[in-house]
Amino acid sequence: MPELELLVKKMALLLSDSVSGQLQTHFTCRFFGKKMIPFQSIQQLESDYFTFSLYNSDKAPILIAVDAPIIHRLSNRLLGGEGVIEPRGRSTFSASDNALGHHLIHWTQAAFRKQGVSLSVGKIAESPKFFYIYLPDELVWQVAFEVKIGPHQAGMIFLCVDRDFHWDTQAEPQP
After folding, report:
1. Strands of the 27-38 sheet, one edge to the other
2. How many other β-carbons are positioned within 10 Å of the β-carbon of residue 172?
C-alpha cells in the first residue's frame, strides 16, 4: 500500500498549494488516514458532499467526496468573503458553489497529473449514494483528508479507490 499512500500525500500537498494560490487563502489539505471498508459505507455518508469520479482509461475509478462546508467556505472566499459561513441545514449547492466544485475537480486532476497519473472526469453528483462504481459489499480503500481554511477546520475529503489500487506512474512527473 505504500504506493497509494505516497501518491495521496503528495496529492494533498499539491492540492493545498493550488487552492491556496488560486484563491489567495490559507488552505491546508492533510492526509488523515486510510482504511479498507465496504463501498456501501461510502455511499451512506451522512453529510452532504460535492462528489465526483475520476477515471484512468483501464483502471478502476476513484470516487472523491468533498464535505459541503469546504465548498461553501471556498465559494465564499472566491466571491470576496472571508471564507466564513453560517451553519446550514441540508446543503444545496448554488451556482458559485458548483463552479468552485468544478475548479476543485480540475485542481485535483492537476495534482494527480503532476505525479504522472492522468485522469478524466466521470460523473458529478451531490452525494456518494448516486454512484454505483463498485458493488455495495466490495472492499475499497477509503482515504481521508482533513481540510482547514485559515485556522478553521472546514471538513473532510474522502477518496475511495479499488482495494488493489496500484498505478504505474510515468518516470517523469508532469510540470
Report:
1. 27-38, 139-149, 152-162, 62-67, 49-55, 120-125
2. 7
| DSSP-assigned states of every residue in 109-163 | HHHHHTTT---EEEEEES-GGG--SS-TT-EEEEEEEEEEETTEEEEEEEEEEET
Domains and CATH numbers, the chain: 2-162 (3.40.1550.10)
Residue pair 19/107 in contact by the 8 Å Cβ criterion: yes
% of the chain with per-residue pLDDT over 90: 13
| pTM more than 0.85 | no
| pLDDT value, residue 75 | 83
The grid coordinates of residue 68 equal 459541503
Q: What is the pLDDT of residue 86?
A: 67
For the chain, percent of residues with pLDDT exceeding 70: 86
Asked if 27 and 74 touch (Cβ cutoff 8 Å), the reply is yes
